[in-house]
Amino acid sequence: MQISLGSRLVGPNQPPLIIAELSGNHNQDLNRGLAIVDAMAAAGAHAIKLQTYTADTMTLPGVHRIEDPHSLWYGRELHDLYQEAHTPWEWHKPLFDRARAHGMLAFSSPFDETAVDFLETLDVPAYKIASFENTDWPLLRRVAATGKPVIMSTGASQLSEIAEAVQILREAGCKDLVLLKCTSTYPATPENTNLRTLPHFQQLFPDCLVGLSDHTMGVGAAVAAVALGACAVEKHVTLRRADGGVDSAFSLEPVEVAQLVTETERAWQSLGQVQYGVQRAEQNSRLYKRSLYVAQDIKAGDLFTKENLRVVRPGDGLPPRYYDQVLGKPARQDLKASTPLTWEAL
Predict the structure, then answer these.
(1) What is the Cα–Cα distance from 324 to 100, expressed in whole angstroms?
(2) Buried (b) or exposed (e) across 85-108, using 16+ Cβ within 10 A?
(3) Nearest 10 degrees: CA dihedral of 165, 170, 173, 174?
(4) CATH for the stretch 281-345
(5) Where's the AFP-like domain (predicted)?
(6) How do the domains of the chain map onto residue ranges?
(7) Contact 188/236 with Cβ under 8 angstroms?
(8) Which pLDDT tens digit goes with each residue over 115-135?
């Protein structure tokens, strides 16, 4: 199974799609946002993803302050946080245009129906549904009605909620769907990433592709996810974590994104198929398997012993499995040390 996202094929028989999530790491500077796009293209990422909302479409002023002391945003008022993190809508086109000029896919996560209407004017090739929006059925129906592929994160979700969201999307017209395993903590730890869910996910939703929305640091979880069947990996990105920003603490820098692209593709390439026996590429290496060699000069009639017979490389002599059978047998002819033992010599 594979689907088309714009000009790119995504599926088990394709290298994993690497999605660079810009989020709020532009730090309210369009030039910085464009520089991140340039850096991600140079690093080899296949897609740039934005988030399309305003503080007012996300929440109301004064309704919530983050009280979790473990949160990166502890003490922040939610409306203020979204005001800082949002990507101005007038920036979407220049950011998309820059990504497309590099040959990258460019799309976004809409957070309400007005965002979908806006993104349709920019002819995005796909839509992303964020974890916290996957229970917003009106939004799901509006996105599905576009007929474009949908990538949906599943963090902080009951399995029943995921199944309902898949059903809603399908009934509203979504044909191509990618489900991303996600842990909605920022950052996530390897211990709470639970990648063994991926093959089970694929069994539960066989008509969907699966992938990973990864909030861990580094690339280890993403590489392991590809080994377990992930066809797409989404990572938050920035120019430098030291520059700060709402998501900088768990975002990858360009050199790390380049590593992500390289290592996930290597993981995908290494999967191959079930294979036993000698591959064509290994044929010449069989020479270096061990075999029976004469270790001391032997006269005709001498018996083979542990002293004059050795199991060594290369493999020009009899296979080692005949060692015990040969011991105690007489030599038919004179043999020089370092001669491979053959049946004719017995």
Answers:
(1) 68
(2) bbbebebbeebbebbeeeebbbbb
(3) 80
(4) 3.90.1210.10
(5) 291-346
(6) 12-271, 281-345
(7) no
(8) 999 999 999 999 999 999 999
